[in-house]
Design a protein that fits this description.
Number of domains: 2
Number of strands: 30
CATH superfamily of the largest domain: Electron Transport, Fmn-binding Protein, Chain A
Helix content: 25-40%
Number of helices: 19
CATH class of the largest domain: Mainly Beta
Largest sheet: 9 strands, antiparallel
Distance between the termini: 55 Å
Radius of gyration: 26 Å
Shape: globular
């Protein structure tokens, strides 16, 4: 039976993860898998096929996985399922509500009676504040004081992963001085039955809390919640400003406060209706553990490094608990839709807080959240696009952004062909490409320095007179006149050329790169040729890349560049040409001193096993493994490439 979801008719706060599963199932958004599937690699292979299906495929509930706990995955892996998870009819609804609320609270009040009108809004906000309850909670129906994580269907996601990982943990910590809570999401590798790693990056609040405990010489209590209302999971991923409780955001989203209960063995609070709770501590004086590799949301392995040990003192759970997990990898995956919700929800706070000229915001899936952002502004003065770039690069997690495009108010920034045309019409490649330096995401593998590198801002807005360049290299639209066969014959290192972007003077070249200097020589030679009179931008990629697959080339190029280092700007024949080196880097060819990670693909054995039992698993129409599309990109060496 199909039920049209309506947030006005359906409850916005889910009683449990099982309650949410019922909604998914009634709306034909869930497949129950009753036959046995191994959480070691097999679950991932199935999920990868569904995640990359049109509109994110289906949520999957693996009921037979070798444990007593069903495994739920891909449950937020589409726009529709994100709407169900947050109890809304459109991802824009939350932003509109925030805008309305902020408008009421910030509107000037002329008299006492107008001030009284805001009291209901203040009352609503107070009703969303988390609240501590007494007694034992439903998440503590079963208490295991000799914990063994082996009871949970914890996945090994990709063949070169360092082990099994808890991938959807809601990690709860407190500042030891202020007592302010943080709720984050940090993967947890399982090392022993009661020991995991805690993979929080140095920029994260959990890591900052760790440093505060270390200064005090104290052990750090930590609790991990799994399941419960999906709003808890989403809120743990959200870019909430420091010192604002993520459980307040969850209360706002579900229109019901998050009720908390004290842990059994640690002085920390957890949601009463979570499915599973993992309690423990980190000894801040203890040596770190070598954690990873892990197949990450960038589509590449994040390589092994040192992280804190998390000692588990107790596990509690509901009697009918469900174990939630997610799989990340080459986009699009489930995390892309979670990021799309964040894009829509946090647009309004961004406008109100510091950048009122912002009209819209887009995070393309191929940019894996931090590699590419597109923003539309209401431009009213010269240099405004540059002002917006600097503001965004200084705003919370936007500091990790690598490439930022600023467009005019008349552009549909969710139509990427329009964005390309806007760049061609409005961008002088000599004066409208703005490079900066700053922090990058820890997972960025392409920067010369770890977590630090260059950024590129592209001013694609229409220019006022005083912004226009007098240089003759200003763009003049021309018809593309590339002779591909001639170029391939003349330059043996060129293997194929994509000129499908005919209307926007862009080409993509698959090249056998000998080394960086030779690539620069090739760029110079191409820029001097008559063929390139009609070309503004040329992207170089490795020969294994399918240069006619827009998602693949976008993901690869954005992942493989440090923008300033890998941009070659040449002025030839009164024409300014920009070449981007989107190839993988190595010490031998580029004097690149960091390890270069491999991309994520399944192994042949797992693919064959799933192919063989697809029909008996009841998964519906057969879906081919995405690995077949990306296999050529995977190189020898395991998690890191050896060249």
């Amino acid at each position: 039976m199909y039920i049209e979801y309506d947030s006005k008719k359906n409850p916005m706060a889910y009683k449990s993860l099982s309650h949410f599963i019922q909604i998914l199932e009634k709306n034909n958004e869930l497949i129950r898998v009753k036959e046995y599937v191994n959480p070691i690699l097999e679950v991932s292979e199935i999920v990868d096929r569904f995640s990359k299906s049109p509109n994110g495929g289906k949520a999957l509930l693996f009921e037979n996985n070798g444990t007593q706990f069903p495994l739920l995955i891909n449950f937020m892996g589409s726009e529709k399922r994100m709407q169900y998870a947050l109890g809304i009819n459109s991802l824009n609804d939350v932003g509109k509500e925030i805008e309305s609320l902020l408008g009421i609270l910030t509107k000037p009040k002329n008299n006492f009676f107008e001030k009284l009108k805001i009291l209901p809004s203040l009352s609503r906000i107070s009703s969303w504040m988390p609240k501590l309850t007494k007694g034992k909670a439903i998440c503590q129906e079963v208490i295991i004081k000799d914990p063994d994580l082996g009871i949970l269907p914890i996945m090994k996601c990709w063949p070169e992963d360092g082990g099994k990982f808890i991938t959807l943990p809601v990690v709860i910590t407190k500042d030891p001085v202020t007592g302010i809570r943080n709720v984050g999401m940090y993967r947890m590798q399982v090392f022993e039955k009661n020991l995991t790693g805690m993979h929080w990056h140095k920029h994260k609040v959990g890591a900052r809390h760790f440093e505060e405990y270390k200064k005090l010489g104290r052990k750090m209590p930590v609790a991990v919640a799994l399941g419960g209302d999906p709003a808890y999971t989403y809120s743990a991923t959200a870019p909430v400003p420091d010192n604002i409780d993520e459980f307040l955001l969850a209360g706002f989203l579900r229109k019901k406060r998050v009720e908390l209960v004290k842990c059994i063995t640690q002085d920390i609070e957890v949601p009463v209706d979570a499915d599973i709770i993992i309690e423990g501590y980190i000894d801040t004086n203890e040596e770190f553990i070598w954690e990873g590799p892990f197949g990450d949301h960038t589509g590449f392995y994040s390589l092994a490094d040192w992280f804190p040990k998390f000692h588990i003192t107790c596990v509690t759970h509901k009697k009918d608990a469900v174990y939630p997990a997610t799989l990340v990898g080459i986009p699009p995956m489930e995390d892309a839709w979670i990021g799309k919700a964040t894009e829509r929800i946090f647009l309004t706070p961004m406008k109100f807080a510091m950048i009122p000229e912002i009209i819209d915001f887009d995070l393309p899936f191929a940019g894996v959240a931090h590699n590419l952002a597109i923003v539309k502004i209401n431009k009213s003065y010269s240099g405004q696009a540059i002002k917006v770039m600097n503001s965004l690069w200084g705003a919370g997690q936007m500091m990790f952004n690598k490439v930022l495009i600023v467009a005019d108010q008349g552009i549909d920034i969710h139509n990427y062909e329009n964005i390309l045309k806007s760049i061609m019409n409005n961008v002088n490649p000599e004066s409208d490409l703005h490079f900066s330096m700053g922090p990058l995401d820890i997972l960025d593998h392409s920067s010369t320095k770890y977590a630090y590198g260059s950024k590129l801002g592209i001013d694609a807005t229409s220019k006022f007179d005083d912004e226009k360049s007098n240089n003759k290299s200003q763009n003049i639209p021309e018809k593309l006149t590339i002779n591909c066969n001639s170029l391939i014959k003349k330059y043996p290192q060129i293997k194929s050329i994509n000129t499908d972007f005919e209307s926007v003077q862009i080409i993509v070249i698959a090249v056998e790169k000998e080394n960086h200097d030779k690539l620069v020589e090739l760029a110079k030679s191409l820029s001097e040729s008559d063929d390139f009179n009609s070309i503004n931008y040329c992207f170089f990629v490795d020969t294994e890349v399918d240069i006619f697959d827009l998602n693949m080339i976008s993901w690869i190029i954005l992942g493989n560049i440090d923008p300033k280092r890998d941009t070659i700007q040449l002025n030839q024949n009164d024409r300014f040409h920009v070449f981007i080196d989107g190839t993988r880097k190595s010490f031998t060819k580029d004097r690149f001193e960091r390890d270069w990670p491999n991309i994520l693909i399944s192994n042949i054995e797992t693919i064959n096993a799933i192919d063989k039992k697809w029909l008996q698993l009841g998964l519906g129409e057969f879906i081919q493994s995405p690995t077949e599309k990306y296999r050529k990109l995977h190189k020898a060496g395991g998690a890191k490439i050896v060249e």
